[in-house]
Specification:
Number of strands: 14
Strand content: 15-25%
Number of domains: 2
Order of helices and strands: HEEEHEEEHEEHEEEEHEHE
Helix content: 25-40%
Strand order of the largest sheet: 1-2-3
Length: 265
Amino acid sequence: MEIIDKYMPREYLALKINYCRWQLKHLPKVKIQERTLNGSLKKRLVTGRHRYSPESRTGQDLYAKMAIRDCVEKELAVYEAMWDLYFKGPVPEFDLEKTARTLYTGSDTPVVMNKAYFDSLKNDANTNYPKPAFYFFNGTYYRSEAERSIAVFYTNMGIPFKYEPEVMLAGLRKPVYPDFVPYFKEVDSCKFHEHLGIMGSSDYIRDSKIKFGNFTNAGLLQDLDFYFTYSSGDTILDTRFLHAKINAMLIGSMTCCTEKSPFLY
């Protein structure tokens, strides 16, 4: 995991530390033992009092969880170092729960905005308008330097996202294409992020009002399910603004939502 901007708001960083610790608590501790059998060196996986062949289905599953555990341990070390650098003292503990936020896409049954919904969204699906060739990052062309800087930010923070995916919202005949849909694994929820980069245009501001109405008509709440960021002209977005938005939104999701479900590994 590479983090270039080594700052996170206190609550968001504490949430990430809690999530890493929760994962390590539920991931098995596995060791690899080597032994000589009939003149050949053999390996076996050991967890607790149980031993498994690496070729068995359980052994392959344990190998995969070993890799996950290694990544989580490294991630936790980075976050704890950041905590010691900026905040010090004990890390506040959070009860990790899925927030189970929903939206209406046209039917009477709401859709849960979880990982399954996020995975169903197609990245870079908006072909209605051409994009310039010079706002490029990680295989995708963006419409402005500000959008490109947001993509860099999410990538560096380890936050998965979809850029301009096709989204159906209740009350609309055609799909919309939010600028970004980031997924936050700590609460198992994705959010809609619209970036407004022409604040001096009345037509552009009027369009943002329409976007706001489309989201709320689908049962979404501002700064809980969707959020806006702003910049002036073709400028790089100050990531402190985005940090503050994400921090407030995630803490709001954890404290204001009434529909929650516990994590099950």
